[in-house]
Inverse folding.
């Protein structure tokens, strides 16, 4: 089991905990991580792009000139793709880009990225994150104390003061254990998790 330090909001080490090898000590599967990121990005796509083919563009029903004798190339419609104002060849149509991954594959990918963060010493555990009021400046100080500038902050439960204090910081994102995903873990340099959040992750994803 990997041992990591537990810090307080002032950045001082107050304890150590052992992380479960079932979550934070697995063999990294890069293929599943790649597929999990692709799935999340694909599922976020709206798929509403649309352009008209030659059969959908208004007008062009009349043949612009006779077939022979004009010196021009033969044309059957002014809405053919080579004409200005014509339809598009192989025009995009609304579609669903999403695809599915098995639950076990998703969990294995998440375990892989969490293991990578621990191995790189980019997984920081704090005893608790509590704020009496919404104060962005104070939250920035906490992140600086933890030496986590570009960070994903994982909370065990919704804390309005913490979430609101972090919302204006472009390099910080807050999430809860039930919303933890591979893309966010990879996007941010450091994962900052409360001690309670770590316990929940080990319980849920074991």
């Amino acid at each position: 089991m990997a041992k990591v330090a537990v810090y307080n909001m002032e950045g001082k080490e107050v304890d150590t905990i052992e992380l479960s090898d079932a979550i934070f000590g697995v063999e990294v599967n890069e293929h599943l991580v790649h597929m999990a990121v692709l799935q999340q990005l694909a599922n976020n796509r709206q798929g509403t792009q649309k352009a008209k083919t030659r059969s959908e563009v208004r007008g062009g029903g009349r043949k612009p000139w006779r077939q022979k004798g004009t010196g021009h190339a033969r044309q059957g419609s002014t809405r053919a793709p080579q004409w200005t104002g014509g339809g598009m060849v192989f025009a995009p149509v609304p579609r669903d880009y999403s695809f599915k991954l098995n639950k076990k594959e998703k969990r294995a990918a998440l375990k892989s990225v969490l293991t990578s963060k621990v191995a790189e010493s980019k997984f920081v555990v704090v005893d608790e994150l509590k704020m009496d009021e919404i104060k962005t400046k104070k939250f920035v100080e906490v992140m600086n104390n933890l030496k986590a500038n570009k960070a994903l902050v994982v909370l065990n439960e919704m804390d309005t003061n913490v979430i609101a204090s972090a919302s204006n910081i472009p390099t910080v994102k807050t999430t809860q254990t039930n919303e933890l995903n591979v893309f966010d873990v990879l996007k941010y340099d450091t994962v900052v998790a409360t001690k309670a959040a770590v316990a929940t992750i080990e319980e849920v994803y074991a």
Notes: The radius of gyration is 27 Å. DSSP finds seven helices and six strands in the chain.
